[in-house]
Amino acid sequence: MNFEYSDKVKRLQAKISDFMDQYVFPNEKTYMEQISKENRFSTHPTIMEELKAKAKAEGLWNLFLPDSEDGAGLSNIEYAPLCELMGRSSIGPEVFNCAAPDTGNMEVLVRYGTDEHKEKWLKPLLNGEIRSCFSMTEPNVASSDATNIESSIIRDGDEYVINGTKWWSSGAGDPRCKIAIVMGKNDPNAEKHKQQSMILVPLDTPGVKIKRTLNVFGYDHAPHGHAEIEYNNVRVPASNMLLGEGRGFEIAQGRLGPGRIHHCMRTIGAAERALSILCERVQERIAFGKTLAEQGVIQEWIAEARMNIEQSRLLTLKAAYMMDTVGNKAAKTEIAMIKVVAPNVALQVIDHAIQALGAKGVSQDTPLAASWANIRTLRLADGPDEVHKRAIARQELKKYKKVAQGVQ
Amino acid sequence: MNFEYSDKVKRLQAKISDFMDQYVFPNEKTYMEQISKENRFSTHPTIMEELKAKAKAEGLWNLFLPDSEDGAGLSNIEYAPLCELMGRSSIGPEVFNCAAPDTGNMEVLVRYGTDEHKEKWLKPLLNGEIRSCFSMTEPNVASSDATNIESSIIRDGDEYVINGTKWWSSGAGDPRCKIAIVMGKNDPNAEKHKQQSMILVPLDTPGVKIKRTLNVFGYDHAPHGHAEIEYNNVRVPASNMLLGEGRGFEIAQGRLGPGRIHHCMRTIGAAERALSILCERVQERIAFGKTLAEQGVIQEWIAEARMNIEQSRLLTLKAAYMMDTVGNKAAKTEIAMIKVVAPNVALQVIDHAIQALGAKGVSQDTPLAASWANIRTLRLADGPDEVHKRAIARQELKKYKKVAQGVQ
Amino acid sequence: MNFEYSDKVKRLQAKISDFMDQYVFPNEKTYMEQISKENRFSTHPTIMEELKAKAKAEGLWNLFLPDSEDGAGLSNIEYAPLCELMGRSSIGPEVFNCAAPDTGNMEVLVRYGTDEHKEKWLKPLLNGEIRSCFSMTEPNVASSDATNIESSIIRDGDEYVINGTKWWSSGAGDPRCKIAIVMGKNDPNAEKHKQQSMILVPLDTPGVKIKRTLNVFGYDHAPHGHAEIEYNNVRVPASNMLLGEGRGFEIAQGRLGPGRIHHCMRTIGAAERALSILCERVQERIAFGKTLAEQGVIQEWIAEARMNIEQSRLLTLKAAYMMDTVGNKAAKTEIAMIKVVAPNVALQVIDHAIQALGAKGVSQDTPLAASWANIRTLRLADGPDEVHKRAIARQELKKYKKVAQGVQ
Amino acid sequence: MNFEYSDKVKRLQAKISDFMDQYVFPNEKTYMEQISKENRFSTHPTIMEELKAKAKAEGLWNLFLPDSEDGAGLSNIEYAPLCELMGRSSIGPEVFNCAAPDTGNMEVLVRYGTDEHKEKWLKPLLNGEIRSCFSMTEPNVASSDATNIESSIIRDGDEYVINGTKWWSSGAGDPRCKIAIVMGKNDPNAEKHKQQSMILVPLDTPGVKIKRTLNVFGYDHAPHGHAEIEYNNVRVPASNMLLGEGRGFEIAQGRLGPGRIHHCMRTIGAAERALSILCERVQERIAFGKTLAEQGVIQEWIAEARMNIEQSRLLTLKAAYMMDTVGNKAAKTEIAMIKVVAPNVALQVIDHAIQALGAKGVSQDTPLAASWANIRTLRLADGPDEVHKRAIARQELKKYKKVAQGVQ
Q1: Is residue D408 part of a domain?
Q2: CA nearest to D269, candidates D16, D65, D15, D71
Q3: What GO annotations for molecular function exist for this entry (chains A, B, C, D) (predicted)?
C-alpha cells in the first residue's frame, strides 16, 4: 500500500493550485457581476472565456478524460486530486473544461458515439465552444427508480420521435447549450432494464421547448440553469440513437460512475474551502473575551471536519483506484459509498462554517451558502442517498451464505 | 397540570386555520408572482393588502400583543398556537399584522415609547400602514456578543448624532419601512452593560443610506429585504431616545423574549407544514414496487418528526407559560432552550421532506426550500445556538454548590 | 394550559425527595455489599427490607396504582414526578414497592384478576412480601412482533398445560419471586390477535425450571435476575387463566401502557441524576488550566442534556395526561413516542457524564455505567424503538386523506 | 497510489483468518467457562496456553513488533490488517502474543530498555511467559492532562522510592503479571514536560499493593483485571529507571503511537464482527411478514456500517503508512484522528447490531455487549476524544497565517 501521489500528479496539483490562486478565486466576484441582472440567461460572462483561454494555453484542459487521446490520459486516481482543487470554486470546473454535465456527456460520446456524433458534438465540447445537457429526470415520476421514466422515443421510418417532459436538465438555460442526451422508453414491453434508450437531440430541433428554469433554494444558477424541457413530437435522425435501442441503462451506468466520482472530488474541494474560510475567520473574531478559535465547540467542529474530510477523500481515492483497476462495474459499491458520504460530509462542514461566520455565512458575501445549496442537490441527483444505501446494504448482505431469497 | 387549550384559544385556532386554508395558502403563488422581477424592492404585492383587510375585518389582527388595549389581550400561551398556525405560510404573519420585526418593535414602543412615539410610529404600525426595522447587528464585529457593537449615538445639543454601519436590518428593503430602532454606544466608558442605547431613526432622515440588501441562500426576500444601512452623521431629536441613555441592553432583553418565542411558534408551524407535505407526497410516489410511505426509512423520518415537533411545541408552550406567570426574565433559560430547539427540529423535518420529494424539494415548486433557508437564519439571529447553549449550561451549573468561581 | 404540579403532588415530591436523600442514596453502597459474592441469587439484602418498612411507615407505598383503593389514588400525571424521583436510584423503586415488573403485574391483577387471584397474589405483592415476573419474550422468535410467540397454553380438563421456553423473565432469579404471568398460544387457528392468552403460573409448579439468568452488559442484576425459564408440561388450574382464552393481547395492551410510562419516568430520573453527577464533577476537575466546567464542549453537553430532559419530561407528562383523560388506548401514540424518546435521551446524557468523568465513569464507583446498561435494555424491552417508530409513522400517515391502501 | 496489500500480507491474512476460524472463535466459550466463578483472578484458562502454543508453532507470534529481530519485521501498514483479524475476538490478541498492554510495554523495552531490562523482562514477555501492566492513570487527578500526574519517583541513594496510587493498571489482576511500568514525578520544579519519569517496578516488590480491580460496565475482565494499585514507599534499584529522569513524556509519546493504532485496528475487527453477526441474524428473523434484512431501517444501518468501517480502516492504514514513512511524531495528527474515529464507528455498529438482535444482544450469548463495553473505554483510554479533537483542531488552525497568538 502506498498513499503517495505520483510526481506527475504532484506537478499538476501545484500548477492547478497556482492557477486557482492567481486567476480563479480573484475573479469569482467579477463572474457574478458580469451576469446581467435582467437577462440572466442570455448573457455569458466574458471573464469565463478569458479564463478558459488561459487554462487551455497552460495545458490545463479536459483533464477529466481518462484513457483518451483527447484528454490528458489521466487515470481516475490521478484526476481525483486535481478535480478536488478545481471544485473549491463554483466557477473552477468550467474554466478547465471539466464541468458537469459536459464531462459526463463527453465521456458518453467518446465511448458510445459514432464518428459523426464525435465530429459534430464531441469536438466542439472538447474545445469548450458549446455546452450540453443530460435530460433524464422527469417531474411526474420518482426518477430515483429509473425504470419509472416515461418519455417515449419511438422509431418512425428514418427518424425517432421523442415525447415527454423532463426537468433538471442542467445547463440547458445557457444559450451556448446546443445538444441534449435524452433518455426515454422505446419499448414498454421489453424486459424491465431494456426498455430505455438514449438519443442525441439538438436543442434547436422543432418541438423542443425550454419551459422554465428551476431554482435551487434561492439560486437560479444563471446562465447555466436547470431547465424544464418539453419534448413535443421532436424528430431526429435515427442515427442519433446512442449504442442502440434499449441500451439506455447500460449507458447510464457507464456515464454515472465517473460523473459521480467527479462530483465527490469537487465536493471535497468545496469542503476544504469551507474549512479554510472557517479557520481564517475564527482567528479574527472575538466574543466573550477570546477568539472564536479558542472556543471548544469551534475546535470540535474543526477536528470533525478534518477527520471526515480525510476519510471521505480516502474513500473517494479508493473508489477511483478500483475504477482504474477492476472497472466501474466492479467498483459500483465503492462508488455508491462515496456518492453518499462526500456530500453529507461537505454539507456538515459548510454548515459549521456558516454557523461560525454568523449571518454573513448565509449571504452572498462568501461562497458558503451557494456551495451548501449546490451540494445539497447532490444528495438527490443521480439517485437519493437512500437508494444508494439500499444498494450498499444489499451488496453487504449477499456476502452471507444464508441470504433469504426474498431480500429486496 | 392541564394540557388543554382554553375554549377561547380553540375558537381562534379554528378561525385562523380556516382563514389560512381559504385565503392564505391559495394566494402564496399570487404573492410571488406579484413581486416584480425587475424592481423587486419597489413593488408591493397588492394581494397582501387585500388579505390584510380581510384579516382585520375578521378581528384576526395584532393578536401578538399581550396585555395591551391595542392587541387582543392574549397571553403568550394563548397566542402560541395561533402564531404557529400563521407560521405555516411565509406570507401568513404579515397578513395578520403579526410579522417580525414589526411585532418586536411594536412591543418596544408599547412598553418604552413616549406618547409622541406611540402616536407617530406605533399607531401606523398597529394599523399595518407602515413597516419598521431593527438595526442592531454590525458587519464588523461578532454581534453575538452585543457588547461588541460599535455604532455611536452621541448627544449634541437637542439632538443625537448616529454613526455606524448596520446590516441584517430586515424589512428595510421595503419602501413602506419608515422607522428604525437603532442600537449603538453612547458612552464607551460606562459599565459594560450600560454603554448601549436604542433610538428611533426615521429612514428618511438625511445620512441614512441603504447600501444594499443581503441574500439568504440565494433568496433576496423582496420586497422585505435584509438591508445593510450606513448611518452617516444622522441627526434625530433627543426625544427619539428610548427609555434613556445606556438602557439599550435592558430594552433588548425585554424585546427579545417575545420576539424569540414568536419565531419558535412560527417555526413549529413551518415544521408541521413540511411534515404534511412529506406525508402527502410519500403516499403518491412509488419506487421499487411500493409507495415511499411504505419504506422503513421514510417512516422513521415521519416518526422522528412527530416526536420532535411534539416535544418542541411543549417546550415552547412551557416557556410561554413561564413568561406569563413569572416574567420574561425568570423564563430566560426556557426561552434560550426553545430558541435553540425549535429551529433545529424544523430544519431536520424540512430537510427530510426535501429528501423525500427529490429535486422538486429544492426548487421553487414547494415552500420547503425557502422555509429551510429562512429558518436556517434563526440559528444565528438574536445570537447563535452556541451562545444560548452556553447560557443554559451556566444556569445549570449554578444549581450546584461547588460552583468554581472561574466558570465562564 | 397549566404547567404547575398540584399542591398534593408538590407535597409528595418533597417527601420522596427527602426520603431519597436521607435513606436511599446513602444506602446504595450497603445494598451492593449485602449481595453475596458467591450466592448472588439466594441472598436478599436486609437493607432493602429495612428501607421498605420505613417507606411504608411514611405512607410512601404503592403510589403507582391509579384509581385504586389499594394504591394512593394518584392519577398518572400525579404519579409521574414521584416515579421520576424514585428512578434516580436503581434501588429506589423497590423501596416504595413501585418496581417493575411487579407494578405492571399488580395492575393486571387489579384489572383482570378474580377475587381468588387477588387474595392469593395481589395481596402479598401489594404488601411487598413476594415478587413476580412476566414471562412473555421467547428466545426463538422475534418477540417484537408478539404474534410470533410460540409457547402453548392448552386446555386439558380442569387444567391448562403450558409448554415453551421464555427468557428475560426479569425478577425470576430472586427466591422471593413466586408467581409468573405467562403468555402463550392457546389457539393457533384463531384470528391473529386472538391466539394468545395469559395465565398465572406459580413458580413452584412442577415443570417450571429456571435454566439460567441472563446478563446485561456484564451485570447479572442479582438477586433480581433475568431468567430463562423452561415450562415443560406445566399444569395449572383452569381458573388461573386471566380474562379468558385468546385475550392475551388485550391484557398486554392494558398492561404495557402504564408499564411503559413508568419506565420513562424512572428513566428521566436516571438522566437527571447523571446530569447532576456530571455537573458536580466538572466543577472539580481541572485540565489544561481550567475546570472542565469551563470547557465549551462540556457546556454544550450540559445544555443539550437540560434541553432534552425538559422536552422528554413534558412529553411524558402529556402522555400521562392523555392516559388520565382519554384513556390508554387513545394515548397509544403518545405512549409510543415517550417509549422511544426517554431512553434515548437518558442514554445520551449518561454517556456524556461517563465521558466527563473519564475511566471512573465506566466503573462501579458511580451509578452511571449500571444505569446506562439498564436503560439500554429499554430501547428493546416491550418492543424495540423501530417498532414503535413504525407505529407512530403509520398513525401520522393516517391523518392524510390520500392514504394508499397498501401502507403497512 | 496503490490500495493493494502486498503478497506477504495477503498470505499472513489468510493464515490468521484460518487460525481464527479453526481455533479461536470455537474456543471463546471454553475460555469463558474456564474462568472460575469463585476465584476469578487466580485461575488462568488452560485453553489460552494451548492456543498460544499452536499460534507460536505456526509462526503467528509477536507480529506487532516492527523493525525488530524479535518480531516478524512487519511495518505498521503490514501489521494493521493482521491485527484487525485478531481483534475480531476478545481472546484473539493474547493468543498471538499481541495483546495490550504487553505490546506497548514490549516496545518500550525494545526501544528504551537496557540489556538487563531486556533479559529480565522483555524475553519472558516475548515468550508469553509473563504479563505486564502500565501504571499511569491516577484516581485523584484528570489524567487526560498528563502533567497532572502526582505519584512521586524520588532518588534515594542507589534506589528510587515510589509513592502514589494508580488505577486502571490493566492486566495487573492476573497472577502472571510480573512487572509494571510506572509513571510519576521525579522533579516538580522541572520544566512542565520534564517532570515525569517512567520506571520498572516488579509487582512483588514490598509496598506494592493491589487494592481491588475495577469493572467496565458490569465486566470484571478476569483474569486480566483493571487494578487499583497503591505504591507505598516502594524501593527499586536506580537502574530500573527508563531512559533517564524527566523523560517520561518522551517515552509515553513513543509508546502511545503504536499502542493507539493497534487498538484502532482491533476495534475495526470488532466492528466487522458485529456487522457480520447483524447480517447473519437479520436474514433469519422475521417480523411483520418479512425478514429484518428486508426492513429499510436495518438496511440503512448496514450501509452506514459498511461506509464508516471502510473509511475508518483507510484512515487507520494511512496513519500506519505515515508512521512507517515519516515517523510517529510526524503522524501524530493522523494517529489522533483514528484514535477518535475508530471507537466511535465501532460503537455505532455494535449498538445497531445489539438493536437488531434484540434482548439477546445485551446478554452473554453473543460477543456484542462485551465488545461494546470494551470499546467504550477506548474513547477514554490514552486521553478522551475531546483532548484528541482539541489537538487536531489546533494543528489545523496552525496552517493559517493569521493564527491568533492566544489560541490554546
Answers
A1: no
A2: D16
A3: acyl-CoA dehydrogenase activity; flavin adenine dinucleotide binding
